[in-house]
Amino acid sequence: MKLLLFFTIVSLTLFDQFALIVGRFDFTQPAYETLVYAFALKAKDVDKTTDWESNLKKLFSLPAHLLRNRKIDSLEWMSDFVKVTNYNALINALNRIPTDYQANGPILDIIRTNLIPVRDGDPRIKDTYIRYFNQTIDEPVGRLFDGFVVAVEKFNKKKIKATRLKAVSDEYKNMTRKYNEISASLRTQLERTIMTRNAYALQFQLFQRKLKKYEPPSGRSDANKKNEDYDFDYLKMLQQVSADLSRKVAPLESAVNNVKLTLTQYIDQRILWAEYLLENPFNHAKKSSGLSCFGGSKVKE
Q1: Residue 1, class by beta-carbon neighbours within 10 Å (0-12 exposed, 13-18 middle, 19+ buried)?
Q2: What is the pLDDT of residues 219-244, one digit of tens each?
Q3: Domain locations along the chain
Q4: Distance between CA atoms of residues 243 and 104, nearest Å
Q5: Can you give the pTM of this predicted structure?
Q6: Rounded distance between C-alpha atoms, residue 285 and residue 200, angstroms
Q7: Rounded to the nearest 5 degrees, what angle is found at the Cα of 281, between the Cα atoms of 18 and 162?
Q8: Count H helices, E strands: the chain?
């Protein structure tokens, strides 16, 4: 009985995997890779002179130097950034300063108020990266891409006519133009993000170093023990450094959000291109009478 159950489970698993492979297409693979292959396969029957696979493939992924070139910085900056902007470590260092010593309390309150934008903005910035940046770096899997499998199946049952391929060839110029615009915009936005991020990280580290150098009363050097204004002077300096850090949060968050908008545009644009090539608005759920790819051709319903 157990042996029969084992073979039944294995059979169902194999059947489920086979069901995801339709014709020549494996829907467990990246969706756009499958799409380009499917379109190029049909296009070859009509046009054997154009390398449709190479031409289309480059539109569905951003230039490698924007994503993975560590030498010039890239979208993959989160790991290093998290290490040098640890808010909890910052607060732990701040908590070393006694609140009940001389006039520390009021100034510490101001410093903590200055850090509110850091406390609130820091996780938003990192969450934006996780939720939006990775969508572009990681291509969706075919079987998990809403409506994609059915759209490819429908496309696979039809032949591409020469007139249709001519329309796609004309539209390809618009697609390439838009791709280049998005890439250039992303490069500009990324450069701004790099500058504001570096400024924020440097100020964060400066504040952290200053906090660590504070000498508590129990371990204070003789010279600083004699200085009655040590705490006041040191905390006033920390107040200014924390204010400078606070002012750097908004520009960084704005820069990251601008990158997010460009990435979101590209993510949606890839879907529009896929729908146009398949002649099926599978993901936009037929929002209008026709989805324009960028002027020229529209997706038929």
Answers
A1: exposed
A2: 889 888 888 899 999 999 999 999 99
A3: 23-278
A4: 17
A5: 0.76
A6: 42
A7: 85
A8: 14, 2
